Amino acid sequence: MRPMRTTFILLLALTAPRLLFAEIVLKVSRFPDGKVQTGTYYKDGKEAAVKTYDERGNVIAQTGVIPDGVVNYYENDLLNSAAAYKDGKLNGVSKNYHPNGKLKSEESYVNGKMDGLVKTYGEDGKPLTEMTMKNNKRNGLAKIYAPGGILMSEIFYVNGKPEGAWKEYYESGALKLEKKYVNGKISGIVKGYFPDGKLRLEGNYVNDKREGPQKFYFPSGKLQMQAVYKDGTENGIRRSYYENGQVEGEGEFKNGKLTGPVKLHTKDGRLVTPKK
Fold first, then answer.
1. pTM for the full model?
2. Which of 158, 186, 214 is the last residue of a domain?
3. Domain range for residue 141?
């Protein structure tokens, strides 16, 4: 009797989790282009809800109610996603996976809208993006990484719009570019740097448009070129320089177009006479 009782207890232990926590599964059909056409939700093997989509991804019909709990979706018998639902809406953490099983993304939802930390990962498990969402809009610091998990840029968002400092980095970690956003538009001084930290460019912006002198530099730090802009269009004298400081060429622009002749000089400052 003891062996039979032991076997019965083992079988009960193995099957009890499935009996107590029935899996909720999503199955989909697709349009020829691969977009989801219908999504059918099953619980205990029984159909619970069906969503129908148009080719733009909009829900055009729904029958039934998506069960509360984690909904699993499989592709080729591999777990592709696991999303938490409550009251028919995404609520809680939703996770997506790469074919190799590593985490692809994790998102936080409240009442069907992204709310909280959102992260994406490469197939190597290293981070690709990280940001905070509020009511489906970016809010807070967002970070973008290069493959391998190297930080490439970071920017702060308010109600879905960039606000404040935006910084980009080289793979070495050195600062590459910095600019400032006001109400979602570039405003203020933009500066770019060479990998060694020396200034590569600088110029002023107003409402996403260049305004005033725009300067570019040689890796040595010497001025390479300077142009003047007004309301996003080049207006004024543009000068380029040799690295020894001598003017290489100069011409005048008006409304973005070159007006008049271009003056060219040799490295020692002599004016180059154009051939007739």
1. 0.76
2. 186
3. 126-186
